[in-house]
Amino acid sequence: MKKVSLILSFMFLMVVLFGCQQNKDDQVDNTPSTTGSLETKAEVTEGEFVYRLVTEKAEYRENEPVKVYAELEYIGNQEEITIAHAASPFHFPMVETTRNYEIFYSMDQPSIATKLIKGEPLHQEYRAGGGYGSQDKKEYIEFMKHIMNQEFPKGHYVVNGFADFAVIANEGTKQKKNFTIKAQVEFRVNKSGE
Known about the structure:
- The protein is of the alpha+beta class.
- About 20% of the residues lie in helices and about 40% in strands.
- It has a single domain (about 35-190), classed as ApaG domain (Immunoglobulin-like, Sandwich).
- The protein has a 5-stranded mixed sheet, with helices on one face. Strands 5, 6, 9, 12 and 13 form a 5-stranded antiparallel sheet that branches.
- A hairpin with a 4-residue loop joins strand 12 and strand 13.
């Protein structure tokens, strides 16, 4: 009976420790950097493509334009390749970690073809995102109105950017290979006098 009790106690302890570890890992992505420098540039290579996500500065002032952009570069063996995507292959969802507000980035979903020439990155700058509903809290609505006007309030922002596109892998069958390449950068916005 002692062995069974000991085994059950050990299993319970493992479950509790595993649960704590899961919660810690889930929070890593959007935790503000309080020490050291902010990650302002990210580059990810997947297959024959390089995705870059960049914020031009680590710190901005309120009402200063925030400059974030993404690039997709083809580095394969062909001179050019055609990709299919929504209105843009680039998505710029964000989280403002001080308030824990998600800033969604929506776009039209047509199927557009874009030709990528080897060594010439496709470049796009961030445009306003965000949105709100009538049931949202007043503070959230005011915050989103500023974001939608590209007037970022004071806070710490994490851009969870990604490039989402497809390449025709087999011309005969028109079979597509889908790509979703993710990267993350961050920046702070301070009050004008700080």
